[in-house]
Structures are given as C-alpha cells and as structure tokens.
Design goal:
The complex is a heterodimer of chains A (332) and B (342).
Chain A (H helix, E strand, L loop, with lengths): L2 E7 L2 H10 L4 E7 L6 H10 L5 H10 L4 H7 L13 H13 L2 H11 L5 E4 L7 E5 L4 E3 L3 H4 L1 H6 L1 E6 L7 H9 L2 E4 L4 H10 L3 H7 L3 E5 L14 H12 L6 E5 L5 H11 L18 E5 L26 H13 L1
Helix pairs in contact in A: 1-3, 1-14, 5-6, 9-11
Chain B lengths: L4 E6 L2 H10 L5 E6 L6 H10 L5 H10 L4 H8 L12 H13 L2 H11 L5 E4 L6 E6 L4 E3 L1 H6 L2 H4 L2 E7 L6 H9 L2 E4 L4 H10 L3 H7 L3 E5 L14 H12 L6 E5 L5 H5 L22 E5 L26 H17 L8
Parallel strand pairs in B: 1-2, 1-7, 2-3, 7-8, 8-9, 9-10
Antiparallel strand pairs in B: 4-5, 4-6
Classes of the chains: A alpha/beta (332), B alpha/beta (342).
Chain lengths: 332, 342
C-alpha cells in the first residue's frame, strides 16, 4: 500500500516540498494555512468573502501536472486595472469556491482541473484572523502585519492567537490521524506554520497520530519574528503549540549559503539571518537531527506585480533534494 | 464523405445559441466573431488592460467546448462583488492569455486547447477598433455602447457605417469563408454584432467569392431605435447592402408565436416581432424557410451582467435552428437528384 504523507505548510514552502514529494508513489495530503490576508489573496478575501486562495493554489500548482504554458497562464499576474496584482489561479480558485459553494469543494475541483497528484486541504473552512502579540504588549490584527509592520522589527513578536475559535475541518484531522509521516515546514513560523495549530482539533489529532513528525527547519530567520534563532529555538517554538517531544526528526540544511545571498540577507534582515545549529545542546534532544545539503542553487525571481514579493524568501530549499531526505526518513 | 464546413458569423449571445445546436452534428465548425464590443466587462478590460474585447469570443468558446460542465460554468462565472464585480472568469482568462501570448488570436488558440473546443473560434479582426455610424443629419456615433443606446438610427436614419480606425479582417476568417460549404449569418444584434463583422475589410468580398450557401437567420424581434418596423426583407436588403451584392441564398424565419409572458418583457415596444409578408416583394433572390424556431425556455442571465436587461428574452432554440440549417445544407447535395418537391 502507498505510504501516506501529510505536509503542514504555507504556500511557497509547501509548493517546494510537494513538488519534490509528488515524484514518489505516495498518498499526499497538504494541510494549508488559511490565515493569509495580504496581497491579492487579501483583496479577494475582503471583497469577495472567499477563503484566502493564495497558499492552497500554490500547493495545488505544485502537485499538478499541467503543461508549462498552463502554469504560465495560472501564475500570470494582471498588471493594471481593477484586477491588478491578482493571479489567474487566485481568481480561478475564488470563482470555483463561489460556484461550488464551499472552499473545500472549490479546492477539489481545482485539483481535478490540474490533475493534482494528491490533495490540498485548507486547515479550516472558517475565516481565520490572526492576532499578533508584540513584545510591548500591543496587538496587531491581520497576518499581513507580519510582512510590513515596522513595530515588529522594533518590539518583536511574542505570540499569535485567534480571538474567534476556528474549527479544523474533518478532512485535515483524518489525514493527520491516518498518516505515516507528517512534514512540518519550511515556511514562515508565525505567518504560515503556527496558525495551522491554532485551528481546534489539530493538536489533539497530532496527539493521537502514530506518524513520524518531521520538522524541516528554515534556512533563514526573520527579523522581529525569529531573530537569531537556532535549530533548538525553532523546535521549542513549535513544541509550545503542539506539545513537548512530539517531533521525531528535524531536517537541517548544511550546504553553505552563497556569499551573495547572505549579503543580501544581511541587508534585508540584519545580523543573525542564517539559522545556526548548536551541536552542544544535543544531549537533551528527543528528536533526531538529519543534516543534509538541500539548498536550491539558483536565485529565485518574483513578479514585478507581486505586491508581497519583498517578503518572500529568496534563499530556498530544493524540493527534489529535500524529498530524497524525507523519503529516507519515511522508509527507515 | 468529407465533413461539411460551416462558418458562422455573429456576436456572443446569438452565436452561442447557434453553435450549441450545430455542434451536435458531425460538421467542421468555425465561428467568426465580432470584435468591436466596448461595453460592460469587455469594455472595462479593453480600457484598463488594453486588450481586445473577449466577451463574444468567450461565449463561442464555451458553446463549442467539449470540456466538463464545471469548466464551462467557470468560464461564464461572473464575480459579484468588489473590484472584479461583473467580470466573468472566462474574460479574465482570455485577457491573460492575450497578454502572455502577445496577440488576441494566439490567446484564443490556447483557450481552444484548454477548453477542448470542437471547432474554431476566429476573431473577425485583430486590432483595437470601434464601429462609427454616421447619421443622415451628419451626427456621428462611435462605439457599440453608444450605438446600442441610440434611438437615432430609426429617428434620423443611418447614412454610413464603418470601422474607425479601419481594420482588415483576419486572414483566417477570410480563408475559412472561402473554403466553407455553408455560411450562416446571425442571429444577433443587427447593428451591434452582425453588421460590425461585415465592416471588417475583406469579409464581404470573401463571402461573395465563396461557393458556400449563405443562410441568414433572421432575428425574431426588432430592436427599438435600431430596426423598428423592419420586415424580413428589410433585414436581408440591409445585409446584402453590406455584402455588396445579393448573396444571401436562404433565410430562416420563425413561424411560431413566442410565449405571451416573454412578449410582455418588451412592455411598450410596438412592432416587436419581425414581420414577413410574401407579397411585400416579388423578385426575391433568396428562399425563405419558415419553421418553428423559437425557444420556450426562460433565459437566465446573471444579476451582475450589466447587459442582462438588454439581452434578448425571445430567442432562438439551438436545436430547432440547427436542424433546419442542416436540412438546408443537405439540400444542396440532393438538388441534382430530386428535381422538385411539390
């Protein structure tokens, strides 16, 4: 029987992992955050009252088998008029949600259209509005603040929470309970990963599951959010939400980051931008660390009309390299 | 036997009806579509994105699409709120395809692939242009929207219709007309969809030169301010004028009175239904095929479709119309065998 894998991620990170995993004979479910409210997605969310299509769409495109030109079409971003900044795929998913009456059904229809090798499950069908608590006690409302708020740089994020309870959807819970392996990350911790654990039922489902839980540690930190973090800090951050000693494996990149990129990173995020690993802390760890060279070689280029391009990570992992590591963990 | 080639000429709604019926027969279909719409969502896209108007082409693509019901629904889905209100997903898709491919025609070809279209959809022309109507009092009306809203065509009278700037018909449109076994004109808005096709440089000549049987599907109702009191013969005479010769061979004409509740929709319009009197004319070079062609269905337009109130309520029935056209097409084959049906 095919092994089951569940990924827990945002858009870009999820797309990368899924693009690699789909080449293996696996039963893949991608659980995706719905806290996003910036850029094109934010506008669609506010104006059409749809659930945020951005992250779901990216994961579906990664799992899909569309031809190259189709991909070009779906990722095309309008550059003028009232549709400026929207991608064709975001509009497509929004329209499919409207036609089918539910986000999950819309997502399923898009998966069919793209002949996706796996399913993408929005963590909940309820709108999720992220509340961000800063170091000075102030509270910012909306995920997009994580991308653009100066205050975050200044005071740092202390925690995120929801004011209104959001119930995880059954599909997501069942996927977690029945899977062989769960892959968390990479991705923005506060913006994409942790919000998934805020949906009610997810932590309990993780409690019940017998699956291996693998955390793919980010290569870079974000100023004000994960400044100066090392591997242990990331794991502790996760454990605060999903409970202690749940993580069984951590994948850590050990290929060096090219000078050009680390310079650029220093300019953008300041010092401490690259995630370090403190091997001396090893003793108390209940999880196994797998170090591997998983960095993508070429530089990532974003569209000029992408309103949040500046916030997207430009040092990224290679989906194929990462998938190889993950398969090894799955089979061990 | 070689498959017969049918080329249709029209706008969005009329062609949609026509193609939905014809596609059920094993014929090669090419839909030539007017490209001068500048109203509604198409007009906004034209203005904001600088693309060609996608609406009419979209309707033809959907009609000929052999893809899932979902994809067809999706293409016609209109957003109902926000900045996207009124835009159909299909129009946005076509505009994106035009932008990516650098030309509207190439974009349409891609759409044909995506939607698994059985047949061809050919924009009649490929440049940004508008219709320009000059009235008998010298008044000039520019663009489909203004022409559509004007009542002066009837009141004052039309002197000359043209495109501004002038535009050549697409090569493909001309090729297909020349190769056709049958050319079907209409149904559709007379001055906003049908005539604009004939204004593209090269189209009238191609129709004149073609060996095809030319059929005109006469509209069911007259349009206020445009064709008040037009009879079947008036329509044909007008179209022949733009064709530059008496080229129409057959005219289909509805013989069935539409449902009363549909007639009511056109509240105070006099001379609503197109009239035909055998005695009106004696020297017709065209044959008139009378048949029940009217649809009994209630049209269902989207509430955010800004044109919904202006779209036709009394419409042709796709299947009835197609059947009559196929009979006309086959008549050509049998003419040599059956000498006369008395």
């Amino acid at each position: 029987m095919q092994k089951k894998i569940v990924t827990i991620s945002g858009g870009h990170g999820g797309a990368m992992v899924l693009g690699g995993l789909k080449k293996y004979p696996l039963d893949i479910s991608a659980i995706v955050s719905i806290a996003d409210d910036g850029g094109s997605t934010g506008i669609l969310r506010r104006e059409l009252g749809v659930l945020p299509p951005g992250d779901v769409k990216e994961c579906l495109l990664a799992l899909g088998n569309q031809e190259f030109w189709m991909n070009e079409l779906l990722t095309y971003r309008f550059d003028a008029g009232s549709m400026k900044g929207h991608t064709v795929a975001n509009l497509l998913l929004a329209a499919l949600e409207k036609i089918n009456g539910s986000f999950i059904k819309g997502t399923e229809r898009l998966a069919e259209l793209l002949k996706a090798e796996g399913r993408v499950i929005p963590v909940s069908e309820q709108l999720m509005t992220l509340h961000i608590k800063l170091g000075n006690g102030e509270i910012l409302i909306g995920e997009t603040n994580l991308d653009f708020s100066e205050e975050i740089y200044q005071f740092g994020v202390k925690d995120i929470f929801l004011e209104q309870r959001v119930q995880a959807c059954d599909l997501a819970l069942r996927a977690i309970e029945q899977t062989d392996m769960i892959v968390i990350g990479p991705g923005d911790m506060y913006g994409s990963i942790l919000p998934i654990f805020l949906a009610e039922g997810i932590v309990e489902a993780l409690e019940k599951t017998k699956a291996k839980i693998v955390f793919v540690c980010n290569p870079t930190n974000r100023k004000g959010q994960t400044s100066d973090f090392d591997l242990t800090d990331y794991v502790e951050m996760l454990e605060k939400k999903l409970g202690k000693d749940k993580i069984s494996h951590v994948v850590f990149n050990n290929s060096p980051i090219p000078d050009v990129l680390s310079e650029e990173l220093r300019a953008k995020e300041g010092e401490g931008g690259i995630v370090s690993i403190d091997r001396r802390k090893d003793v108390s760890r209940k999880y196994q660390i797998i170090e591997a060279a998983i960095l993508k070689n070429e530089k990532i280029v974003f569209s000029d009309n992408d309103a949040i391009a500046s916030t997207r990570a430009f040092i990224q992992y290679d989906g194929d390299k990462l998938a190889k590591v993950l398969i090894k963990i799955l089979e061990e | 036997m070689q498959r017969k080639k049918i080329v249709t000429i029209g706008g969005g709604n009329g062609s949609f009806t026509l193609l939905n019926g014809l596609k059920k027969y094993s014929v090669d279909l090419t839909a030539i579509v007017s490209m001068t719409d500048n109203g509604g969502a198409s007009g906004v896209l034209r203005d904001e994105l600088g693309v060609l108007p996608p609406g009419d082409v979209r309707q033809c693509l959907v009609a000929l699409s052999d893809s899932s019901e979902m994809l067809r629904k999706l293409m016609n889905y209109r957003f109902e709120e926000g900045g996207l209100k009124g835009h159909s997903f299909g129009n946005l898709l076509l505009s994106a395809l035009e932008k990516i491919n650098g030309s509207f025609a190439k974009g349409v070809e891609e759409a044909v692939n995506i939607l698994n279209v059985k047949g061809e959809v050919v924009p009649v022309l490929e440049r940004d242009t508008n219709i320009l109507f000059e009235l008998k009092n010298g008044e000039k009306i520019s663009g489909v929207v203004n022409v559509d809203h004007s009542f002066d065509l009837t009141k004052v009278g039309l002197k000359k219709a043209s495109l501004f700037p002038k535009a050549k018909a697409s090569k493909k449109a001309i090729e297909r007309l020349l190769e056709a076994d049958m050319i079907v004109i209409g149904p559709g808005h007379h001055y906003c969809s049908i005539i604009p096709n004939l204004l593209a440089d090269g189209i009238p000549q191609a129709i004149r030169d073609s060996k095809a049987v030319v059929v005109y599907n006469c509209n069911l109702v007259n349009k206020q301010g445009h064709t008040d009191g037009f009879s079947l013969d008036d329509y044909v005479t007008d179209i022949n004028k733009y064709l530059g010769g008496e080229r129409i061979n057959f005219v289909t004409f509805n013989s069935q009175k539409p449902a009363a509740y549909l007639i009511k929709k056109y509240a105070d319009q006099k001379e609503l239904l197109v009239n035909f009197s055998k005695e009106e004319k004696t020297d017709r070079k065209y044959k008139i095929v009378k048949a029940d062609l009217v649809s009994g269905e209630k049209p269902n337009y989207s509430k955010v479709d800004v044109f919904a109130s202006r779209r036709a309520f009394i419409r042709h029935d796709s299947d009835k119309l197609a059947k009559v056209l196929m009979m006309i097409l086959e008549m050509g084959d049998r003419e040599n065998i059956i000498k006369e049906i008395i």
